[in-house]
Amino acid sequence: MAELTPSAHAPHKERLLWLVAIGFFMQALDATILNTALPSMAEALGESPLKMQSVIVAYALTTAMLIPATGWVADRFGTRRVYGVAIALFVLGSVLCALSPNLSFLVAARVVQGVGGAMMLPVGRLAVLRTYPRDDFIRAMSFIAIPGQVGPLLGPTLGGWMVEYLSWHWIFWINVPVGLIGLWATWRWFPRGALVAVRKFDTAGYAMLAFGMVAISVALDGLSGVGLGMALVAVLMVFGLASLASYWMHALRIEEPLFAPELFKVRSLRVGLLGNLFARFGSGAAPFLIPLLLQIGLGLSPVSAGLMMLATVTGSMLVKRIAVRTVQRFGYKRVLQVNSVMLALMLASFGLVVPGMPTWLLLLQLFIFGGFNSMQFSAMNSVTLKDMEGENASSGNSLLSMVQMLAMSMGVALAGALLTGFSDMWHLQAGDRMLAIRATFVTVALMTLAATLVFSQLDSDESVRPAPDAGDS
């Protein structure tokens, strides 16, 4: 664990770090424990496992929609109060998820959970930023990041074990005791903080941006046949795009927009955000598709699938150690272009998986994919924020977090639409689902290649500088 300097040893400061770490752990665990359980949840709820993407989309989209408002809400109502409400909503959403009798109820419960999740980490990070001096902030954030690394390590296997030996409900019940401890500790130890001047909130701009994100994501999800007619899908897509365009024109003419247009004058930010969006169509869909491949396609048990996915986590963690040195040696442009191609090839390689292939080969495939995926995230996040300074660093970080969650939502929605489209086109029955899964992997791999065109806009001599903390999600 990261050690803090003696100046940071005040008890309330250490307790704050543990509090924020609890929130980070719940989010990281929830993000990975659910994927392995989706096929079993589909069976229990009487749904097709190929149409469970709405469970993931609802959470990711809610988080993306609320991230731009979290800073203002924390300033307006206080970090202590907002952090407590965030944990309470996350716990309430978890209870509702565990009690869900059908898919529609579960999706609504995930929205409640997403409201809490959207505020937990950003507000916790903000409280740490205001409590620790700049010299200690990086070490403090390193401490908080540890639970975020433990969550993905435990999540797949724990989720598989729970659905196989208990029931899928326990992947949500597990959040309750952890959340209640966090609530009690927040009330007892979370610093109240000094009053902060609250700037005017761009309500109109936020409404346009939020509606645009929701409309486009729901339209994409509607392509998978969740009950939306094609006419409604088309209308939502048009209005979503119009809303985003209106936000841009609105931001150009007011003094304090949600995200200042001046941010986009920085080439690395522009390229990094667009690259994140396109690259994550594939990498964001993978955590949804891989458990389907292992359980529906290969017939593995939930526990076995969870254990297999540890290879992906292991590859990811090992590559983190060499990511910075690799970028320093070859530069952002070359690393991101080459790595985007390799990531696409690894995604496409899952389309070659067949029943009976050697276990060691599949484990190696998952391990290599995890490595390239981690390299992509690290380089993309770093290049996006490396030239952000002062107040722009905070805005850029919020914008990146929003794009990350939006891209994951869109990636999973597209994967669901592709699974349904291939199944309907080829009139596949339950026993033939493997063909649709393999075709979907190849298609999302092709979409990932689009990121190479975006990253070609980087300067060849793009310098390598430490960027503000952006996470690695």
What can you tell me about this protein's structure?
It is a single chain. This protein has three domains: 199 residues, MFS general substrate transporter like domains (Growth Hormone, Chain: A), CATH 1.20.1250; 55 residues, no CATH class; 208 residues, Growth Hormone, Chain: A. Helices cover 77% and strands 0% of the residues. The N terminus and C terminus are likely disordered. The longest helix has 35 residues. It has 16 helices and no strands. The chain has 473 residues and is mostly helical.
Key words describing this protein structure:
Growth Hormone, Chain: A; disordered C terminus; mainly alpha; 473 residues; 3 domains; globular
